[in-house]
Amino acid sequence: MPALGPQQVMTAAGSLGATMCLLQAWTEPGDAVLVESPAPRQLRSLIRTLGRRMLEVPRRGGCLDIAALDSHAAMLPAASRQRLLFLSTAVSNPLGVCMSPQGAHQALQAAERHDLRVIELDTWRGLSPLQAPSLAAMDGLQRVAQVGGVSTTLSAKLRLAHVLLPQHWVDDAALRCLHTTLGPSEFEERVACEVLADAGYPRFLQKLNTALKIAGERTLSLLTGAGLQALCVPDGGPFLCAGWPPGCEPRPSSDAVLQEARKQGLPLAAATDFGDMPQPFAWYRFNVAHCGDERLVRFLARMKNP
Description:
Elements: E1 9-12, H1 15-26, E2 32-37, H2 41-49, E3 53-60, E4 63-64, H3 66-73, E5 84-88, H4 101-113, E6 117-121, H5 135-139, E7 144-149, E8 161-164, H6 186-197, H7 201-225, E9 229-230, E10 239-243, H8 254-264, E11 268-270, E12 283-287, H9 294-304
Parallel strand pairs: 2-3, 2-5, 5-6, 6-7
Antiparallel strand pairs: 1-8, 3-4, 7-8, 9-10, 10-12, 11-12
Helix pairs in contact: 1-2, 8-9
């Protein structure tokens, strides 16, 4: 990462608030933006609420579908400041996979080819056991803005995010909202600063990642033992996507799966929450942090014998 000036580092009240500011600053209602698919449902909901259109770029493990990106880029607004691509590199939500170095390089090449502004969603990097590439670092902050946060590792109540901007974007008057209405409280900034600077924080992250790895392996074992198939093996973080593949009988309906999950108090989200692209089979996002007790066992037993 290049040396940053103080104007290039901004804070916001949560990563979603920062993303909303960037969307409102650089696009107009009716504009289309490029979004990796599957993508966080909060991001998808925000884009729809603001009246923007999504052009979905399929995510194939650690890489984007560059052919689809090239095709969709032709439908973006002509003005370069309105040509946005949203993606994540470290522990994507919902897949839990990191972008490969090759995939990150391809994405940056495509961004340069189509004159895109890349919004790197980096809120889950603390839960990545891998040295996942950073587009902002690889690009030297030329056409990438990075949005990161601390709520995923510290506390969901700590609504504090950072935004790293290229130097030639910092004077954009449209970004004033990052300094004003969407700014976090001084208390939140001080708490985050104290914790992140503490020598014990890296050890805390290591313990957290180890616990999530163990929970993920146990959850994957239970799911595969019940006939489910993982969409991909996550690199880290709390999410695991799996479903009943074709040919698996009995194969419960999506409504039945979600209804039983609610009944068991099991946090579950359907694939349709994260994208509209065709899928090999109906899958669901499991949070492994909530799958370590008997709720998952009861849920799988009910799905086997509905």
